[in-house]
Amino acid sequence: MIRVLLVDDQPLLRSGFRALLDLEDDIEVVAEASNGGEAVDLARIHLPDIALIDIQMPLVNGIEATKRIAADPALAGVHVVILTNYGLDEYVFDALRAGAAGFLVKDIVPEDFLHAVRVAARGDALLAPSITRKLINRYVTQPLPTATSTGTGLTELTGREREAVVLVAQGLSNDEIADRMVISPLTAKTHVNRAMTKLHARDRAQLVVLAYESGLVTPRTP
Question: What's the gap between Cα 143 and its chain centre?
Fold first, then answer.
């Protein structure tokens, strides 16, 4: 059973999402919150698999809530998915850097919404290759004000793991990485997962961000 925490300051939107989720046999909404502070408290109580969090809320917004959840070892199993009205904007990028597993636009069609919840619950990043490329093209190609030098975690990566991380940061799927590296998709997935573990990346989305912020991948000039 996939346990979901809904976080949005608009009761009508929460009700709509809950009605949709409650129709599914394998999904259960365990709690609702109207701001990020409540979300963190309820996450600690219920330990949901997924926290669907609105990015802009009063008191404590979605970015801050994501930071608090990502920083709490007791909530390591909680996958944050950001809800936004605006698509890929600077707030979404900040949320991904804070540790979100991905994001959804609120006007997503029901079938895609339910599929996204299940994808995130499996621990996969909710960033399709096309979305990853948009992320890279719009933001990561621009120098980040908080960019750091090459992180020490990179020294633990094997050559093949480094290569896989670079390809992830270019927006390639595991199958595409396998083709590029001339390996099996399972081996490609293994390289990516081991790199995530060594770099302490919660998911594939954060791995993309870390690849650029660590200096492993150099931003292109727009």
Answer: 21
DSSP 109: -
In one-letter notation, the amino acid at residue 106 is K
Distances (CA, A) of 190 to 118, 169, 184, 202: 21, 16, 10, 15
Gap between the Cα atoms of 95 and 29, Å rounded: 23
52: amino acid identity, one letter: L
Partner residues linked to 5 by β-bridges: 31, 51
Top-confidence residue, 133 or 211:
211
The pLDDT of residue 132 is 58
Q: What is the pLDDT of residues 126-167, one digit of tens each?
A: 665 555 556 656 655 555 544 444 455 778 899 999 999 999
The radius of gyration computed from the CA coordinates of the chain, to the nearest angstrom, equals: 17
Distance from C-alpha of 155 to C-alpha of 37, rounded to nearest angstrom: 37
What's the whole-number mean pLDDT along residues 198-215? 79
The dihedral region occupied by 182, where left means phi > 0, alpha psi between -120 and 50, and beta the remainder, is left
pTM across the whole model: 0.70
Cβ–Cβ under 8 Å, residues 45 and 91: no
- CA torsion, ordered 145, 167, 135, 85, to nearest 10 deg: -130
With H, G, I as helix, E, B as strand and everything else as coil, classify residue 128: coil
Q: Torsion over CA of 124, 58, 106 and 5, rounded to 10 degrees?
A: 50
